[in-house]
Amino acid sequence: MQIGLIGSGNMARAMVRGWGDPVLCTDALPERAAALAAEVGGEAVATNAELAERADLVVLCHKPPQLAAVAAEVAPHAKAVASILGGVPLSDLQAAYPETTVYRFLPSTPVEVRQGAVIHALEGAGDPEVLALFARLGTLVSLPEAQVDVAMGLMSNTPAYWALVAEAQIDAGIRRGLPADQAAELVVQTMAGTAALLRRREFDTLAVRREVTSPGGSTARGLDALERGGVRAAFSDAIDAVLGGR
């Protein structure tokens, strides 16, 4: 399957690195498309229309406000379109591409290392070959579209949250005298290991906490400090901020 990406920014780059296949690509900044094509052995194409003519699947990675302008170029030529545009519902995509098979996906940047999550909107198209393509990037979760934006608040934004949490822990270790590189290695490796352990425990977060927490021990004191610091409320506020009025 020949993939064509319209937009060659961070998320497009993460997906292409995860797939590891040559792609066609365009971008409002031609040099950015050229750099991405050079990295994966693909080709930077002159126009969106040419890309749509040559690609089996056009992946929309441009800015959401460009939907109508890009569709005017692409819709007459595209065989199938997959959107990763945040906040753009299927109804808008189908209105922009009325004669084209349309998919809606939302990936997260860890797909670069095939460790991320990808949301698929159930009401969109569901060809097994296209679903398998996105499943190569990580865990594919199909949800009703009404739940997609909520799910986005748990995975699409979250790499930045975990990076902030890691940064805070690393800084705390540095403040207590650990070298920065060793503090970072300890924190990041423990985050990765904890994620693997949670999966092995079938996502039983309480079980994982209990395995570490002795009554009155250091972990219990640390958890108490985090609770008093409002960690639960902070994450609840974060998803409310992401969703805004939606």
Automatic annotation (TrEMBL):
Pathways involved: Amino-acid biosynthesis; L-proline biosynthesis; L-proline from L-glutamate 5-semialdehyde: step 1/1
Subcellular location: Cytoplasm
Keyword match Oxidoreductase: yes
Domain Pyrroline-5-carboxylate reductase catalytic N-terminal: 2-85
EC number: 1.5.1.2
Alphabetic keyword roster: Amino-acid biosynthesis, Cytoplasm, NADP, Oxidoreductase, Proline biosynthesis
InterPro entries given in the database record: 6-PGluconate_DH-like_C_sf, NAD(P)-bd_dom_sf, P5C_Rdtase_cat_N, P5CR_dimer, Pyrroline-COOH_reductase
Superkingdom, taxonomy of origin: Bacteria
Primary location recorded for the protein, binned into one broad class: cytoplasm
Domain Pyrroline-5-carboxylate reductase dimerisation, residue spans: 145-242
Record field: catalytic activity: L-proline + NAD(+) = (S)-1-pyrroline-5-carboxylate + NADH + 2 H(+); L-proline + NADP(+) = (S)-1-pyrroline-5-carboxylate + NADPH + 2 H(+)
Pfam families hit by this protein: F420_oxidored, P5CR_dimer
Protein family: Belongs to the pyrroline-5-carboxylate reductase family.
HAMAP family with a match to the protein in the record: P5C_reductase
Function: Catalyzes the reduction of 1-pyrroline-5-carboxylate (PCA) to L-proline.
Protein name per the record: Pyrroline-5-carboxylate reductase
Organism taxonomic ancestry: Bacteria, Bacillati, Actinomycetota, Thermoleophilia, Solirubrobacterales
